[in-house]
Amino acid sequence: MDIVQLAAGKTLSSSAVFLLLTVLLLAAARRVSTSIILFGLQSAIITAQVMATAYTEKSAEAWVVAGMVFALKVVAIPSALLWLVKRLKSPRAVQPAISGAKAVFVAAFMIFLSYAVVQPYAREASVPQDALAAAVALILTGAFLMVNRRKALMQIVGLLVLENGIFLAALTTTFGMPLIVEIGVFFDLLMGILIMGVFAFRIRDTFDHLDVTKLRRLRG
Length: 220
Fold this sequence. Notes:
Blueprint: H1 3-28, H2 32-57, H3 60-88, H4 100-125, H5 129-148, H6 152-174, H7 179-207
């Protein structure tokens, strides 16, 4: 690893603690709007990481990706989700399957598990362990939010957090994917969010709630 990649790796590691903090806060969040804001903050931290990588590697493509991440994940998607929360006029509690204290404990365990899992690979591949562990923790947290939260909007937030983890893992291990790949991922993500937003409206209009667990009654 050359000195440029080493500097970028140190930047990724230094911001990993803030990403891990968002993991714990997401697990403890009681309102949908709080979870959306935390996702936006998480995305802003990742944007800063991409900008640091773009600066150290002098990559014009990385600057474009940083701008796309900021515009889509920090501004557009959180604003759209907050608009959905207001427009749907549903109770704004996240309605978790387990209590907030237990959820924080699970999140802390996932952080510990992430460090244990990535340690051998990080040492062998000479990648920043803290940043890679944060990426795995985000993936696990996103999956956990989708399982633990009952509201359709929280399923969307969980998917977005999971995608942030995948993006950070790619940034950490390869210092950025090709621009055309990034554009394709962002387009797929945007289309997925739009479709899930439409489904949220349909669920609310048909069943007068957004609790996805109640949809199990439809099974024959």
